[in-house]
C-alpha cells in the first residue's frame, strides 16, 4: 500500500476536503468548516515528499512528473475518490489531494494503515476501518512518523538496476560509481568522471528502492535516522567488495560505491619499494600512511598488513569504517572490527584493543584528537600501530598531529612522536601515460637526527635531513615525481597538478634538466 494512503485516510476520517503536502512543511488538512489542521508534528523533507508522490503516480505519468514536475490524476482509496495534483517548483515538490466523494463502484473497505492521532475537538465518526486510534492530541508515535520507507523485504541477490550498474562499472574499469537524484549514473575511470551510456536520470523512488535492497539492516536504519551511512557490500558476481556511502542532498538521495578487490594487493604490482615493505617487520611504533581521499592509502596499508600476515606469527587487529580488504588467516590471527557494527567508534575500538592482546593494530582513520592520543599511547606501550591521515605531505602530517592538541600538551606530544613515530608514507595517484593510474610516494623514516628535530619543534629542517638521508629510504615527493617524468610514466603537467609544493617542483624540474613551461602546460623537448 502506498505511503500517501496514511495521510489520505484522514480526509475521510476527519471529513476533510483537501490535503496539502509540501516539502519542509507539516502536512495540512482542510476541513469542511474551513479550519486547517496539521496532521504531523514535524515537517516532511523534500526526499520524503518525492517518495510519497512516486508511490502513487501512474506509470504513464511518471516521465512527465520526473522531467516536467507536473502530474494530475484520479486516485481511489477504500471506495473513495481523490483528485491528486503533483507539482515541483525550484526543486520543492508538492502534493495536493481533493476529496471527490465515493467512487461509482465502491470497493470493499480495506484496513487502512493507522497513524495514531486524536483530536479533542468533535469530529464525525469514520468507518471502523478508517478510524484512527486515539493516543493524544495531534501526537504521532515515533515509530509511526513518516521517514524514508523501511525495508519491506531483503533481496539477497541485490537489485536488478544495481547489478547492471555494477557490471558496467567493472567492465569499464571504473573505480567509483556515483548515483544522484535526477542525474544519470557516472563512473570514475582513471580519475575522470564519465557518464554511463544506456542509463537515464535516476528518480528518487528508484534510487531508494535500489539503496534499500543493497543496504544492511543496520546501515539502512542509520540512513533513515542520520541521512548518511557507510557499509561494505560483497558483490560476488564481480568478484569484489564495495565500500558504499549513502547520503541525501538538496535534490534527494544518492550513493557512491568504491570498488575493493577481493584479492589483497600485490606489493610488486603496486611498486612498493623495499624500504616500505620492511615496515611489516617492526616490533613497535607508529606508521602513518597519508594522502588525500582516493589516493590509495587503504590499498598500501592492506599490502603491508598482508606481508605481516605472511611473515609473522602474531595477532593483527584492525579497526575500520567500513571493513574494506578482508584478510584471511595466514601465519597470523587476524580480527577485523567495523565501526558502527562491532564498536561504537575508532577511539572506543582502540581502547578495547589494549585488552585484546594485539601485536599489530591498524586504525582505518585517525579522525580526532582522542583517537590520535590513544594511537600514540598504544605505540609507546610496545605495539605496532598503522594508521591513516588526510594530509598532503609527510612533514605536514607531524604538524597536523601536534596542532590537534592544546598548546600546553604540544611539547609532550612532540616527545611521544619522536619516540614512537617510525615512518610517514605520503602518497598521491597520478594518471599513467598510456592509461591507468599509479602512486607517487614520499617516505619519511624517523632517524635519530629527525627524531631530535621533531622533539625540538624544528620541522622546517626535516626536508634538508631527508635529502641527505637517502640511504635510510628518505624520499621527497618532488624527487619521486621528477623520476616518474624522466621514466616517461607520467606527464609533467599531471605531476605539477598533484604535487603539494608547486614552486619547489618547478625548481626541482630545472635542476633535473626538465624544462617546464606552465604557459604550454607541458615539459619542453
List the helices and strands and how they pair.
Blueprint (H helix, E strand, L loop, with lengths): L4 H9 L2 E7 L5 E4 L4 E3 L7 H11 L2 H10 L1 E8 L2 E10 L2 E11 L57 H12 L4 E5 L5 E4 L2 E4 L8 H11 L2 H10 L1 E8 L4 E10 L2 E10 L5 H4 L3 H4 L7 E6 L6 H15 L3 E6 L12 E6 L7 H8 L6 E4 L5 H12 L3 E6 L4 H10 L6 H11 E11 L5 E9 L2 H9 L5 H6 L9 H10 L5 H7 L3 H10 L4 E2 L4 E2 L2
Parallel strand pairs: 13-17, 13-18, 14-15, 14-16, 16-17
Antiparallel strand pairs: 1-2, 1-6, 2-3, 4-5, 5-6, 7-8, 7-12, 8-9, 10-11, 11-12, 18-19, 20-21
Protein described:
This protein has 525 residues and is of the alpha+beta class. The protein folds into three domains: 5-117, Beta-Lactamase; 160-261, Beta-Lactamase; 267-475, P-loop containing nucleotide triphosphate hydrolases (Rossmann fold, 3-Layer(aba) Sandwich). Helix content is 32%, strand content 26%. It has helices at 5-13, 46-56, 59-68, 160-171, 204-214, 217-226, 267-270, 274-277, 297-311, 346-353, 369-380, 394-403, 410-420, 448-456, 462-467, 477-486, 492-498, 502-511, and strands at 16-22, 28-31, 36-38, 70-77, 80-89, 92-102, 176-180, 186-189, 192-195, 228-235, 240-249, 252-261, 285-290, 315-320, 333-338, 360-363, 384-389, 421-431, 437-445, 516-517, 522-523. Helix 10 packs parallel to helix 11 (369-380), helix 11 (369-380) packs across helix 13 and helix 12 (394-403) packs across helix 13. The longest helix is centred in the middle third of the chain and has 15 residues, at 297-311. The termini are far apart.
